[in-house]
Target: Stage V sporulation protein AC
Amino acid sequence: MRLFDPSKPLEMQKQQYQQLVNRMSPKPPVLRNCLWAFLVGGLICFVGQAFLSGFQRLGLSILDASAATSIVLVLIAAFLTGLGLYDEITRFAGAGTIVPITGFANSMVAPALEARTEGLVLGVGARLFVIAGPILVFGIVTAWLAGMLYYFFGPRPPVGS
Model:
């Protein structure tokens, strides 16, 4: 089969090319990828729960233990990103590594590491929030908007109470 035949219209050639691409493209092992994402994401959550329980056993309140757990998970993810290990885990586990807190830490550290040759301020400092910045902005704006809607349209206490 000739890929491009000058006697056929261009649209037909595009369709032939697309069929060739579809036939030659490797098919991803979806079930295996889902299994690894589930297992690695579950492992990250298990580690987080272990830290939370450990901090509570040390006498921290649930709020303090939650904050300490978040800090530890961010530090671990940032450290693994700095060593280049988080990317290797992500290649292996895919979506399982974007458990919110560790994925957030990775999204902040990775661009900063790429820009470290540009200096601490203009490189690392400027790139820290390249990916995470829009997430923070839209998260804060959405929370503010939800709070305003609740304030203006939410339930009202009975008059005289």
Residues 28-153 form one domain. The chain has one domain: 28-153. The chain is about 75% helix and 0% strand.
